[in-house]
Amino acid sequence: MVEEKDNNRQPGNISRRQFLKDAGIVVGGTAVSSAFFLSACGKEVEVTKTITTTAPGTTSTVTKTAADNTVTITKYTCPVCSQEFDSLAALKAHFDADHSETEAKKDTINLTINGNEYTDIHVKPHWTLRELLHDKLEFVDIKEMCSGRGACGSCSVLMDGRPILSCLTLASTCDGAVIETAYGIANSKHPLIEAYIKNHCMQCGYCTPGFLVTAKALLENNPNPTEADIRNALGGNLCRCGTYPAHIDAILEAANVKGGA
Ligand code: FES
Ligand code: FES
User: Looking only at Cα atoms, what is the longest distance across the chain?
Assistant: First the structure.
């Protein structure tokens, strides 16, 4: 399972582990600061104090004895549905019974990427496929030239055989998809790779993975493309280094190798 750094947890999108951790932090954090405040009085007395916690409409009763530093928490509030429980065990049982399926598992997806299966990938609702593939799974062949505006084609991948812009695709909608990136095309020893090398299709190379993905999709659908077909297919891919003519030569050559024109 892929874990992510959970710095921006959204309400309603909470893993089981994070939920149990947060439940402890919210209630415990309040109690500890209260205990510190009470102990500052310096008197050996038993004090009972009612504190409003961060969960709306919920209070926790905390009993503090300065001498033994004991804090007793008498209420545990579910951060998903705000139901209250008398013990942490009861809260855990409630979460397992009522929220573990709906809240914790709905944000995982399965993908096949370049022939390998990735299961139970934890995704945030707002993550794009590009963020997931590049930032989390480290497929660094997926580029981003236009800051995710859908304008450059450098983030292109094949999804179920179709070229898509991964910067405009939400990862959470891709459950069960078969993804192929430029790495997969290179590993399959596709004729495009040799043709791209031979025709010097890259200068800085940043745009090349996106071109390769688009070119492969073109040849799958049209094994015998004309120059106009190629120009049309590559219309959404930008190259800052101006390598456009080389791509046309390379794709025509790869088509020949594959038995096309
Ligand atoms: S990053 Fe430019 S189209 Fe996706
Ligand atoms: S080779 Fe540099 S951006 Fe295309």
Answer: 93
Rounded to two decimals, the pTM is 0.63
The ligand minimizing its distance to the Cα of 163 is 1
Whole-angstrom Cα distance, residue 111 to residue 118? Answer: 5
From the CB of 34, is ligand 1 less than 6 Å away?
A: no
Give the separation between CA 168 and CA 15, rounded to whole angstroms.
25
Local confidence pLDDT in tens for the 261 residues of the chain: 444 444 444 444 444 444 444 443 333 333 333 333 333 333 444 444 444 444 443 445 455 554 555 666 778 887 678 888 888 888 888 888 887 665 555 689 999 999 999 999 999 999 999 999 999 999 999 999 999 999 999 999 999 999 999 999 999 999 999 999 999 999 999 999 999 999 999 999 999 999 999 999 999 999 999 999 999 999 999 999 999 999 999 999 999 987 755
191: tokens are 């004729």
Ligand 1 in reach of 148 Cβ (< 6 A): yes
Atom of ligand 1 nearest to the CA of 155: 4
Question: Rounded to the nearest 5°, which phi and psi values hold at 78?
Answer: -70, 120
Q: From the CA of 153, how far away is ligand 1's center (Å)?
A: 5
Specify the pairing of strand 108-113 against strand 178-180: parallel
Domains and CATH numbers, the chain: 16-103 (no CATH), 108-257 (3.10.20.30)
Instruction: Report the separation in Å between the CA atom of 47 and the middle of ligand 1, taken as the mean of its atom positions.
Output: 61
Ligand 2 atom 4, closest CA? 239
